[in-house]
Each structure stands twice: as structure tokens, then as C-alpha cells.
């Protein structure tokens, strides 16, 4: 007898109901109190990291942030310290394992044992596959996989002894679904998702809860720091315009609140943003169809650019009339609000 199959529309309707329920759940505040807790946020000097730091400080947490740019870091420290709580800002290159270990040791020396570790530091390289060299993959893996791994290993001994701890790994919807022109980013974020979920499985028994966060595009203002390859101006304009659209993106403050709610609840995973939830759900149901659809999106993106396309330029070096147009107003606003601007960039 031929077995009846469930209509695809019914499965998609069920997925929509799950997305709606997830949206309600993501706004539910858990019971974990941040007041007096020691929180370390990597990449905390700007963008989402700074937003998370502001929100933790507002709740009375003792906050440590780290970043590579000393000037940027000091501006963030001064802003956070003005709220009257303890703030430590440390300059570190997290791609150096020893720098990560010394970071953890210094934070614990100055503030006490780390209660919450947020692995937020990130980089992004946008461009066609033909312009992605081995360096792009190595840099992405060093930042998104190895740095969180070294940080988690460094905080775990003290968390195990105390029988508690929270670890938040900021991955991406690009760690659930492949996104065209972001191959190194997606590969490293897929790796981080697997690492984070594996740690969750084995550490929960010790009272240590690991949460994987997979955001949609966020309006943090960080697009200008992306590394652009290929047809630089066209590529960046496409990237920054997509990063600015309200329907496709989520504002950083809302994302930050939902991340802290997930931390308080001790969730295993949170996908932020309705487009991300739908895309991840669709990919889970019909992965082949999803990748085929995304291959059509890829055809609409800027193409290769010969030898010139191999050159690495930051977003702020790839501006054009399109990237400066009114369409990117929300991103420009976020740049000013989240310490993304400096005198020379």
C-alpha cells in the first residue's frame, strides 16, 4: 500500500506556527540575575558586543570587554564606566591562543571568576568564491572557531569547580544555512555551531549552560568593517543595503535583549529574526531546494573582478553613491550609536 505523504504546505504552515511560538518565547525573561555577575564579552568595543555590554552594565554586572583596536576600546570603556559599575577593557588579538588565556586570567584577577562568557568577536569577508583565498578561511576559523574554543577551555576549570556558568556563542544564520558570497564566514560559523552544541551536551551535567545564538542580519553598523573582495563598490553596496533593510534585519538593541533573555533561561539555541527562523526551518525541511534557491540569489550578486578582485578592502574603503544613499540610513545611524566610527575610518 502506498504511504500517504504530508503535503508540503502543511509542513510549512507548521513551521510558521513554530516560528511564531519561538518569537514569543524569545521575549520571555528568565530568572538568572546579572547583578554582581562577572561578564566577559569578546569583541565588546563596538557593534553587538558593545550593545550587550551596555545592557549588562545597566543590570549591575561587572563587565570586561576586549578588542584589538586600543582607541576604540578606550572609547567603549569610558562610556560603560560612566554608568558607575566596574568595567575592565583589555586589548587582545584573540587569534593568539596565549592572548586568550592571559585575557581570562587577567579578568579573573581584576573582577573575580567569570560567570558569563560571551564569544562575540567576529570578522566577515564578502565576495565571490573565486576571490576567496586560503587566508580568508584561516582568518575566519581562527576568529570564529579557535578563539571561542580557547576561551571556553580557559574558563571551564573555574566554572566546573563552582558547578555553574553560562557561555554564549554568537554564531549566525550563516552557521545554519549557506549564504552566497560568504563562504569563509559560513564555514567557520557552521563549525562554531557544532562546537557550541557539543559543549552544551557534555557540560550541562556540570551546571554549565552553553547557548548558541544564530542571528539574522543585525543593524549594528559593523558593515563598514567587513572585508570586501571582487567588485568592491558593487559588492559593498549590496552588502550594506541588505544590512539596512528593516524587513530583513533586526536592530541591535532588540537582539541584545533577546540574547540576554536566552542566557537567563539557559536556552540551548536561539535563532534571532523571523527571516532567519524561516530560512533555517526551510533548510531543515528541504535542504536541496533551499540551496538551489540560494544559487539563484547568487546569480544576482556582483561577479568576479579579475586580479583586482583579489585585493582586500574594508567596507569604508569601498563606498559609492549607492552605499551612501538614503537606503542605508539605518546602518549609518547604528554606526554612530555603536562606536563603529573613528577619526581615520
From TrEMBL:
Composition bias type Basic and acidic residues, residue spans: 332-345
Pfam families on file: adh_short (PF00106)
Entry superkingdom: Bacteria
SUPFAM superfamilies named among the record's database cross-references: NAD(P)-binding Rossmann-fold domains
Coiled coil as UniProt keyword: yes
Region ranges (Disordered): 304-345
An example Gene Ontology CC term for this record: membrane
Keyword Transferase: no
Record-linked SMART domains: PKS_KR
Gene3D superfamilies: NAD(P)-binding Rossmann-like Domain
Coiled coil, from the record: 63-93
Parts of the chain that traverse the membrane: none
Entry's Gene Ontology molecular function annotations: oxidoreductase activity
Keywords: Coiled coil, Oxidoreductase
Skewed-composition ranges (Polar residues): 320-331
InterPro entries assigned: KR_dom, NAD(P)-bd_dom_sf, Sc_DH/Rdtase_CS, SDR_fam
Ketoreductase domain mapped to chain residues: 37-220
Family the UniProt entry places it in: Belongs to the short-chain dehydrogenases/reductases (SDR) family.
The protein's name in its UniProt record: Short-chain dehydrogenase/reductase SDR
Lineage of producing organism: Bacteria, Pseudomonadati, Bacteroidota, Cytophagia, Cytophagales
Amino acid at each position: 500500500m502506498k504511504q500517504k505523504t504530508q503535503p508540503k504546505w502543511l509542513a510549512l504552515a507548521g513551521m510558521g506556527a513554530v516560528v511564531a511560538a519561538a518569537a514569543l518565547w524569545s521575549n520571555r525573561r528568565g530568572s538568572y540575575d546579572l547583578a554582581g555577575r562577572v561578564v566577559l564579552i569578546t569583541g565588546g568595543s563596538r557593534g553587538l558586543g558593545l550593545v550587550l555590554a551596555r545592557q549588562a552594565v545597566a543590570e549591575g554586572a561587572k563587565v570586561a570587554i576586549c578588542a584589538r583596536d586600543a582607541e576604540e576600546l578606550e572609547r567603549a570603556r569610558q562610556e560603560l564606566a560612566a554608568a558607575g559599575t566596574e568595567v575592565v577593557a583589555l586589548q587582545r588579538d584573540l587569534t593568539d591562543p596565549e592572548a586568550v588565556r592571559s585575557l581570562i586570567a587577567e579578568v579573573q584577577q581584576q573582577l573575580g571568576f567569570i560567570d558569563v562568557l560571551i564569544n562575540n568577536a567576529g570578522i566577515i569577508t564578502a565576495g565571490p568564491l573565486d576571490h576567496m583565498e586560503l587566508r580568508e578561511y584561516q582568518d575566519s576559523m581562527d576568529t570564529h572557531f579557535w578563539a571561542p574554543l580557547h576561551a571556553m577551555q580557559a574558563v571551564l576549570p573555574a566554572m566546573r569547580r563552582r558547578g555553574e556558568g553560562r557561555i554564549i556563542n554568537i554564531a549566525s544564520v550563516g552557521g545554519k544555512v549557506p549564504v552566497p558570497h560568504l563562504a569563509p564566514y559560513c564555514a567557520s560559523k557552521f563549525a562554531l555551531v557544532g562546537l557550541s552544541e557539543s559543549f552544551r551536551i557534555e557540560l550541562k551535567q556540570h551546571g554549565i549552560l552553553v547557548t548558541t545564538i544564530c542571528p539574522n542580519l543585525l543593524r549594528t553598523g559593523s558593515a563598514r568593517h567587513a572585508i570586501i573582495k571582487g567588485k568592491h563598490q558593487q559588492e559593498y553596496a549590496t552588502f550594506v543595503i541588505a544590512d539596512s533593510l528593516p524587513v530583513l534585519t533586526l536592530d541591535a538593541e532588540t537582539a541584545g535583549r533577546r540574547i540576554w533573555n536566552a542566557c537567563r533561561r539557559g536556552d540551548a539555541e536561539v535563532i534571532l529574526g523571523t527571516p532567519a527562523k524561516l530560512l533555517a526551518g526551510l533548510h531543515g525541511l528541504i535542504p536541496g531546494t533551499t540551496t538551489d534557491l540560494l544559487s539563484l540569489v547568487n546569480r544576482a550578486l556582483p561577479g568576479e573582478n579579475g586580479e583586482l578582485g583579489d585585493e582586500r578592502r574594508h567596507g569604508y574603503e569601498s563606498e559609492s553613491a549607492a552605499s551612501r544613499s538614503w537606503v542605508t540610513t539605518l546602518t549609518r545611524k547604528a554606526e554612530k550609536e555603536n562606536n563603529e566610527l573613528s577619526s581615520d575610518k
